Amino acid sequence: MVNPKYKRILLKLSGEALMGGQEYGIEHARLMQYAHEIEAIADHGVEIAVVIGGGNIYRGMQAANSGFDRVQGDHMGMLATVINSLSLQSAMESIGLKTRLQTAIKMEQIAEPFIRRRAVRHLEKGRIVIFGAGTGNPYFTTDTAASLRAIEIEADVILKGTRVDGIYTADPEKDASATKFEKLSFNEAISKNLNVMDMTAFTLCQENNVPIIVFDMNKPGNLQRVIEGEMVGTLVEV
């Protein structure tokens, strides 16, 4: 990879993806796979920020449906993202990558507080920055946190790594006739009611002209192919 298409990216990973073949928790093999995928593009000078969900451990919405207070449940979900962030940080550092973890909720003993200028400086120095604890506010998802942080650090693109290889007309795991989109405008995605991200996150990207690429993170080499500019997954742009 001589000239990567994107210089600074925000990689959004789902917490559920860390389960691998398990029903919950973190599968070490999947964690290390992601660390090596990130290493492959970091070696070519790409500046990388990461936001990871917490659904493999806890989900605020499900907690609310179980009788928990929604705000309390969302705070518990934010802490779950910090656990995942710490695990990914540990995996990346075990193979020699330089990282920093910043959280939207202050917990100085284990992470820096989120400070935009400091985050950008870390990226410029070649460190991988992980943003934990969502936005720090209830009622906002980690998709929204990813969109917000991408805008704040002036990322070129949001790469949403999922277990599906793009955006389809319907859920391809449930509907065999579902067809894949190669490219979409934000307006098309909204009018077709496609579940790319939640609407708050999606609108933030649309208003600030941040493209989104949805791709299969579990296929080895896909992250690097996206960075090289190959048509992998589905591109959503203005």
What does this structure look like?
- The chain has 238 residues and is of the alpha/beta class.
- 37% of the residues lie in helices and 19% in strands.
- It is built from eight helices and eleven strands.
- The chain starts with 7 loop residues before the first strand and ends with a strand.
- The model has no long low-confidence stretch (mean pLDDT 94).
Q: What's the CATH superfamily, by name?
A: Acetylglutamate kinase-like
Structural class: alpha/beta
- List the helices and strands in order: EHEHHEEHEHEEEEHHEHE
CATH class: Alpha Beta
Query: What's the N-to-C terminus distance?
Result: 27 Å
Integer-rounded radius of gyration: 17 Å
Number of domain modules: 1
The neighbouring-strand order within the major sheet is: 4-3-5-2-1-6-10-11-9
CATH topology annotation: Carbamate kinase
What number is the mean pLDDT?
94
Sequence-ordered SSE layout with sheet pairings:
Blueprint: E1 8-13, H1 28-42, E2 47-52, H2 60-65, H3 70-94, E3 99-103, E4 112-113, H4 116-124, E5 128-132, H5 142-152, E6 157-162, E7 167-168, E8 180-181, E9 183-185, H6 186-191, H7 199-207, E10 212-216, H8 222-227, E11 234-237
Parallel strand pairs: 1-2, 1-6, 2-5, 3-4, 3-5, 6-10, 9-11
Antiparallel strand pairs: 7-8, 10-11
Helix pairs in contact: 1-3, 5-7
